[in-house]
Amino acid sequence: MYYYILDPHNIPQKNFERQQAELQSLLTEFNVSGEMARITPLRLMQDLVDTAASRGVKTLVACGTDETFSQMLVATKDRDFTLGFIPFSKDTQLGRILGMTDLQTCVKTIASRRIEKLDLAKINDSYFLSYLELGVGAQTNKPMGLIASMKLFAGSSIDLKMRIDDSYDISSKIMGALIINTRGTAMCAGGPVGNPQDGNLDIVMIEKLSRFTAARYKQEIESGCYEKIPGATAIRCQQIEFLEPRGYKITIDGNEVARVPSIVTITAQKLRMIVGKNRTF
User: Fold this and answer.
1) Closest CA to 135 of 57, 232, 34, 249
2) Does residue 6 contact residue 20 with C-beta atoms inside 8 Å?
3) How far apart are the C-alpha atoms of 132 and 257, rounded to whole Å?
4) How far apart are the first and last CA of the chain?
5) Angle at which helices 103-112 and 13-29 pack, to 10 degrees?
C-alpha cells in the first residue's frame, strides 16, 4: 500500500493545488494510487507517519520539498518502510540525486518500483542523503558570474579542526568544504566521491585560490566537484567530529542544520529508496 504525504509548506498555494490534482490523475493512470494525506498545522508529519505505520503501510512517499523528505526521515524512527520522493518544487537537490524530476517521470518511477539500498548520514539528530556545506560550500549549485566566483575567495578562511573516525585530528585553513554522502550534480557523477552505497562519507576541502584559479575552475566550484581542483583535499571516513571554530554554521543547500561542534556519522545500506533511471549514482 502506498501512502503519499503532501506538504504545502514553501510552495505557492496555486502551484500546490495544481500539482496535487495532476498527481492524483497520474497515480490513477499508472495504477499506483493509495491514501493521500496532507500536512496541516493540526496534522504534522510525525502524526501522518504514525498513522501510516498503524495501518500497515509499506511505502511512504514524500510530496513537496527536500525539507518534506528530511522531516519524513526523522519521523520514520527506524521503522521498516520503503521510501519515495516526489518534488513539488523545480530542480530540488534530492530530486536531482534520485532522478525524480517532473511529476510524470516521478509517478512512472514509483510504478516501476526500482528500489536501491542507500547509506543514511546523520549530523547530531538530523538525517541527510546529500551533503553538508561549510564556507563557500554553501554556494554549490548556485550559479555565479565570473566576477562573483573570483570575489568569493577574497574573504577570510576558516580554521577548521576535525576528529576523524575517533582516531586522529586534522587542522586545516580552508575556504570551503563539503561532507558528502551523495551529490545531485551530473558533472560529478560516476567518480569515487559521493557514492551513497559504499558505507563512507567523503570530505572534500579547498584552500584559498587565486582569482585566476577561481575563474578557471568556476564550474567545479559551482558544482561542488572540489576534488577536480588543484590542491583540494579529499578524505574518506565514517565519522567526523567538528571541533572548531565553535559556533560556525553548517548548512544543507544553504540552510543551517547545525553548528560546530557537531558529529557526523554514516549508516550503511540503511534506507530502501525508490530511485529513477537518471539518478546521479
Assistant:
1) 249
2) yes
3) 9
4) 27
5) 40
| pTM of the entire predicted model | 0.89
Q: Please list, in sequence order, all residues whose beta carbon lies within 8 angstroms of the beta carbon of residue 219, skipping any fewer than 6 positions away.
A: 187, 225
191 has a pLDDT exceeding 80: no
Question: Are 164 and 237 in contact, with CB atoms under 8 Å apart?
Answer: yes
User: In this predicted model, what pLDDT tens digit does every residue of 201-241 receive, in sequence order?
Assistant: 999 999 988 888 888 898 899 889 999 999 999 999 999 99
Is residue 126 a contact partner of residue 256, using CB atoms and an 8 Å limit? no
Q: DSSP readout, the chain?
A: -EEEEE--TTS-HHHHHHHHHHHHHHHHHTT---EEEE-BTTB-HHHHHHHHHHTT--EEEEEE-HHHHHHHHHHHTT---EEEEEESSTT-HHHHHHT--SHHHHHHHHHHT-EEEEEEEEETTEEESSEEEEEGGGGTT----HHHHHHGGGS--EEEEEEETTTEEEEEEESEEEEES----GGGTTSSTT-TTSS-EEEEEE----HHHHHHTHHHHHHT-GGGSTT-EEEEESEEEEEESTT-EEEETTEEEEESSEEEEEEEEEEEEE--TT---
**Residue 17: Cβ within 10 Å count:** 12
**Which grid cell sits at 142?**
548556485
**CB distance 177 to 205 below 8 Å:** yes
Domains of the chain from N-terminus onward:
2-113 (3.40.50.10330), 126-268 (2.60.200.40)
Taking phi first (over 0 means left), then psi (-120 to 50 degrees means alpha), and beta for anything else, what does residue 77 get?
left
State which amino acid sits at residue 151.
Answer: K
